[in-house]
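In keeping with the milestone schedule agreed at the kick-off meeting, the structural modelling team has produced records for the first pair of proteins. Each record is given below as a sequence line and a structure-token line. The laboratory manager (R.T.) confirmed that both were archived under the project's standard naming scheme.
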Amino acid sequence: MTSPIGVTAILLAGARPIPDPLARAAGVAVKPLVPVAGQAMISYPARVLADHPAIARVVVLTQAPELFAADPQTAWIAEHPKILFETSGNGIASSLLALMDRADQTFPLLMTTADHVLLDAAMIDQFVDEAAGADIAVAMVERRTLLARYPQSRRTWLKFRDGWWSGANIFWFGSAKARPVIALWQDVEQDRKKGWKILAAFGPLALIGAVLRILTLRGGIARIGRRFGLEARLVAMHQAEACIDADKPDDVVLIEGILAGR
């Protein structure tokens, strides 16, 4: 399949209310400015996204755009003609909805995070090719793919009939049909006590299937999509590095080793 041209990439570069341990240890204001192998971590995914031919523009969502413009290591991001900053709201979902509702915004959207330091063009190629045509897609890595390359890496795994899966922090919103799912996500962000209502919205079969491990992840995602009247798709990433983000000091050490070998 040929990758669609004109994708808007959304790069999440916000800060949580609680100070980030990596940022505090590095003496920087926000986590995306934490140095990894001599560069602010956000520089890696920002450059890969800006250089990719399928990406028409990159929108950096953050509460404090001025921090990146003022930092010598990230000033280039603020000056890049393909990149623009948008001030994010109280949560990711609400900020995403506001962006989707703008008159000048077109689909599809690809969303990733500033700590996705190992993101590369091959990952974008695979994800965009396999997500194209879906209303929502999510990138995941199966445990055997990661452990075959990096047995020392520790991730959070979801167990399904077709394996153990970890998120790769790459998401696809192919049409406005994705809006109700994001609105549901917004409800979770605003009131986590509504969790049982959110689970109920996905339907008892999907919930029971996940608990009893009788669903494949691919089939479960497709079924949830049908529940919302849209096409939802799993993209099983080929590269183990797709699920290694710079979240903990051990991650940074591993990532720097991988970068040194590239």
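The second protein of the pair:
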Amino acid sequence: MNIRTQLELEDHFTDSEKEIARYILTNGKDVVKDSISTLAEKTYTSPATIVRLTKKIGLEGYNDFRIRYSAELEKLSLSDNEIDVNFPFTKESSYEEIMNNLILLSHQTLEHTKSLLDEKVLQKVVKMMKKARIIDLYGTENSLLAAALFQNKMTRIGKNVDMRSLDGSQTFLASASAPDHLAIVISYSGETENVIRWVKILKSKHTPLIAITSLGDNQLSRYADIIISTDTREKLFHKIAPFSSILSIEYILSVIYCCYFQEDYDGHLDHKISFDKMSDKRPAHLLKDEND
């Protein structure tokens, strides 16, 4: 898990450690320029408390934190013309600015996500999908919306894809899994308690597992056979909405669908058209006119 995510989670932090974490998150690059005594003074804490916090998130001390956090911020940094994924508009923004910023945000998110995709990894994913008797999707809240769209597309070309919306049902789904299934697990943080419970069950069932998660180390990635990274510029909590993360996940799933579709382009297209005609409730004469 990256440093920023750990600071946001505040897992087992004392009140003083929470104050330090929130100050670091708010002040970004400026923090890494500060000495430990300066940071202690600014957060009304002590150097010893800062050291304890850095060790609590798996670092060796404050100097290690400055080096690693600086590198992390560089990787996630925005260029001058990029939209802030967490706050793409302000309370002063006009409707026109909101519309324009969201278009730019979408474009930039897709470009960032594309830069993280690897053709060889996609080839492995498609091979696993073709081999699997059933593909099971796992996720929580917003990620399930993207998963549902993927399931709908895959079902229309004849691939058996299963997903459940309730946490308890997903536990049952994992418990019923097998080596001839394929699990696609979606979690932006990769640290959600329910998600980790499911992947542990899936590993006990020897089910191949693809993780779609944020860039960097997290619990989910440690259980995955294949990791696909999302755009990771979005914060967990301090944001208006998950604009970037959901768009990134939807794009990844759409790319996976298209790559799978292409493996049997004509067959999948015939199956989809046949499925759509069979499920379309419009009068037959309208369908005939559409196809003429």
